[in-house]
Design goal:
The chain contains 5 helices and no strands. The longest helix is centred in the first third of the chain and has 23 residues. The chain is elongated and about 95 Å long. The termini are far apart.
Length: 103
Amino acid sequence: MKYDSELPAASKEIKRQAQIEKYRRRVENIESKRVQSPFIKRYNAGVYALSFAIAVYSILYIDFGPEEHCFSGIRRWVDQKKREFWTLSDEEKKELKQQGKLR
């Protein structure tokens, strides 16, 4: 029995159309699968917050030894900003002395 040469091509085309339909269904339904429960949303927010806190702690507080390292510049900048925040400038001291709030 001889097979028709068109049959394999038609079969391939049918398979291809089925794959295209399957792909379209998946793409169209992608948003419906992304609906998350409130618990998952809170969990994800907590994971991001914890990751951020760990990163900040690692950059600013973990002891990498006395030598210079990649976070030294950031640490110096943060220390400078903390000192500026917690100390009074000469103008502020002068104003407070005039108000009698500083000796």
